[in-house]
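Hi team,

As requested, here is the filled-out complex form for the MRU run. I kept the field names the same as last time so the parser does not choke. Let me know if anything looks off before we queue the next batch.

— J.
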Amino acid sequence: MIINGKNRQSIWYDASGDQVFIIDQTCLPHEFRVLPLENLESACVAIQSMQVRGAPLIGVTAAYGVYLGLREGPDSLDRTCHALAATRPTAVNLQWALKRCRDRLKGVPLDRRVELALLLAQSIEQDDIAICDAMGEHGADLMEQLWQEKSQSQESLNILTHCNAGALATVDWGTALSVVYHTVQRGVPVHVWVDETRPRNQGAALTCWELGQADVPHTLIVDNAGGHLMQEGQIDVCVVGSDRTARNGDVCNKVGTYLKALAAYDNGIPFYVALPLSSIDFSLEAGLNRISIEERDSDEVTEVVGLTPDGLPGRVRIAPPGVRTSNPGFDVTPARLVTALITEHGAVEADTGAISALQGLGDR
Ligand code: MRU
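And here is what came back:
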């Protein structure tokens, strides 16, 4: 991704100082800050505090976390994986990356583990870029087709997205936004409707910032506006990401995704989910009521965080003191509401047959 004219990744390794760096996403869009991950603890904190977030990026950070943990103690593989696994519960990419690291490293002699852990993290990082790139190309095929149907009657293809499924949620490109970027590259005039994505506002803070950096026309809307815009004919297609998709095609993603899928279904609007194979939980037959949904702090509901009029970061309380809250971070969209899954291997039906056929394709 190009940030202020410079090509960047969300996470990278700098061999000159043997350091892992991330973009601190809790500072965006107000400040662009790069942060070193010094050790295992800082990798865990980065995931937990959402300095890094988004399912694929959580996985890649965990792989670097394994490297950092082993650098502190080459015999700490189990302890390190255990600490990283406990950071966030929903995105299956975390478990996927840790399993891959553990499987590859457990038989390696201690004196070679650190070196191999680094190579493994770097290859997971580079694979993620290629996977997101491929996913974007496959998604752009679908968008281009849709644009051919619409181009006679309107000025741009209007895509709605929820949360941030962009380059910031992966190493580069993104999942849903990779589809957007590749569609733009093909010359389709794209306009993106961005859901704000309360309570963490990943849409307002991150997606708008990212699309702005890439010069993609977009409009920020409150989470509840999507249904109305669909009824008014202002949304042609929805494209979102996923934190965990079950074998039957049920899609777990940022809370609010389900309501958008319902509204899209009611209005005959295609609803696509762009995801790498590492976001599919092949061990899970179905997703409804079977995925551990992260319950987040009450403060996120009762307070709004942003810049105060004096330009400094601040929090404003919006609910009465002592109010009871509930703050599930994700929800599950049933497969029947999903038009197709866009993977690095192409678009497939959100059903058990098509998804089962993908199993094993991602192993190397
Ligand atoms: O809580 P977050 O910000 O980690 O949630 C991120 C999402 O829900 C994304 O939509 C999902 O990870 C898919 S992203 C590539």
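Two things worth flagging: The longest helix spans residues 110-150. The chain has a mean pLDDT of 97.

Thanks,
J.
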